[in-house]
Amino acid sequence: MTARYARFDALKIEWAAPGVLLVAFNRAERRNALDDTTHRQISEIWLEIDTDPEVRVVLVRGQGADFSAGGEPELVIDMFDDPQQRRRTMREAQRLVYNMVNCEKPIVSAMRGLVVGGGLAVGILSDISIAAKDARLMDGHVRIGLAAGDHAVLIWPLLCGLAKAKYHVMMNLPLSGEEAERIGLVSAAVDDAELDRTALDAAVTLARYPADAVQKTKYAFNSWLRSASVQFDLSHAFEEMSFQTEEVAQIVEKIRDRKTKDL
């Protein structure tokens, strides 16, 4: 990969096909959970991609058996303990959403295994989202005492309706990739063995079309998301406020205890 992407060393970046840039979560041993570095880099890389004339389409996936298990416990603990870390990470999460929405280049996601939290945000915010039928998708915020502020309030109601969005996000109910396709949360669901080929085919197809037409169509579609920015910013602010509640303090202590026992 060119020096242009050298600073994004927590991600695997390579050409998947002419004009198709592969961006992969690269912590398979941790189920591609987001540590501080990965979280920062996945929020920033879209700005670099947006100005790269060689990139026509982005294909995003996880290395190994999972797309991403979301924020790792250490990051949650650090955000609780350190207000500066919390503010920095929350700003990154906000930029991740807006940078993906405003990136001119179309994005295709290939989701398998666990697809949770910030990882789910990346998968669902992609313009073409393809999941393995047996993938496990879950927002995950409320189970650790946080308001759902990553992406769910912004895009789930548009994709699957308000009733289904509330049902799965507020009750913290996971969905299979097959069920996610049925309710309209993802573009398509396929057998795991077909996932990589299907996602790459979609990316290559987009790369063959006139770039200006594809990019302007994406921009127009994403005006729906930009129009919901007030709702998103409110949910994001509520998530940051949630870190000050007694419920989150108790959950963080349980996370610490589990980690201590693992040492």
Give a structural overview.
- The protein has 263 residues and is α/β, with parallel strands linked by helices.
- It has a single domain (3-262), classed as Alpha-Beta Complex (2-enoyl-CoA Hydratase, Chain A, domain 1).
- It is 54% helix and 15% strand.
- The chain has helices at residues 36-50, 73-81, 83-102, 117-125, 152-160, 162-170, 177-183, 192-208, 211-221, 223-227, 229-242, 246-262, and strands at residues 11-17, 20-25, 57-62, 107-111, 114-116, 128-132, 136-138, 175-176, 188-190.
- The longest helix is centred in the middle third of the chain and has 20 residues, at 83-102.
- The protein is globular and about 55 Å long.
- The chain starts with 10 loop residues before the first strand and ends with a helix.
Q: In percent, how much strand structure appears in the residues? A: 15-25%
Topology as a string of helices (H) and strands (E): EEHEHHEEHEEHHEHEHHHHH
Q: What is the share of helical residues? A: 40-55%
* Global structural class: alpha/beta
| H/I helix tally | 12
> What is the CATH T-level topology?
2-enoyl-CoA Hydratase, Chain A, domain 1
Count of DSSP E strands? 9
Uncertain runs are: none
Strand order of the largest sheet: 1-2-3-4-6-9
Termini, distance in Å?
A: 37 Å
The rounded Rg comes to: 18 Å
CATH class: Alpha Beta
The second-level CATH architecture is Alpha-Beta Complex
